[in-house]
């Protein structure tokens, strides 16, 4: 029985690499609609399904952890970090937008006070 490395590359390494590229490409999705978070979760679930399928296909060894399992676990950990980063960025953006809404209301109120002080003076100058 001879192992063919091309099968490992085509059935294992390339799909995982494509999922990793999809995860990196998700950085360009807008945060406003919430599609980014659901897309990242979908990619992570796809990697888990692929891992379950490959668990049945690839031979297992009981002596030590296979290199393929280490590889897929590392990729999954990187995707998990990316997902946590996305959650953190979305939380910070929401917090910033709330503080800007409150800050703009205060600035407009201060400008309105300045405009109200100037209006009677300008109005008196136009009448007189």
From TrEMBL:
Span of domain Neurotransmitter-gated ion-channel transmembrane: 14-101
InterPro entries, per database record: Neur_channel (IPR006201), Neuro-gated_channel_TM_sf (IPR036719), Neuro_actylchol_rec (IPR038050), Neurotrans-gated_channel_TM (IPR006029)
Lineage of source species: Eukaryota, Metazoa, Chordata, Craniata, Vertebrata
GO cellular component: membrane
GO MF, one example: monoatomic ion channel activity
PANTHER family to which the protein is assigned, alphabetical: NEUROTRANSMITTER GATED ION CHANNEL
Keywords associated with the record: Membrane, Receptor, Transmembrane, Transmembrane helix
Pfam families: Neur_chan_memb
Gene3D superfamilies from the UniProt entry: Neurotransmitter-gated ion-channel transmembrane domain
Mitochondrion as UniProt keyword: no
Residue numbers spanned by region Disordered: 96-128
Protein name: 5-hydroxytryptamine receptor 3A
Compositionally biased region (Basic and acidic residues): 96-121
Positions of transmembrane segments: 6-29, 70-90
């Amino acid at each position: 029985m001879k192992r063919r490395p091309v099968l490992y590359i085509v059935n294992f390494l390339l799909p995982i690499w494509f999922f990793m590229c999809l995860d990196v490409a998700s950085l360009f999705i807008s945060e406003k609609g919430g599609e980014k978070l659901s897309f990242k979760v979908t990619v992570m679930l796809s990697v888990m399904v692929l891992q379950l399928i490959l668990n049945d296909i690839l031979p297992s060894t009981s002596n030590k952890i296979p290199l393929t399992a280490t590889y897929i676990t590392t990729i999954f950990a990187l995707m998990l970090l990316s997902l946590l980063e996305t959650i953190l960025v979305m939380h910070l953006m929401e917090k910033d937008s709330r503080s800007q809404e409150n800050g703009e209301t205060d600035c407009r109120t201060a400008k309105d006070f300045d405009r109200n002080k100037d209006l009677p003076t300008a109005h008196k100058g136009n009448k007189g």
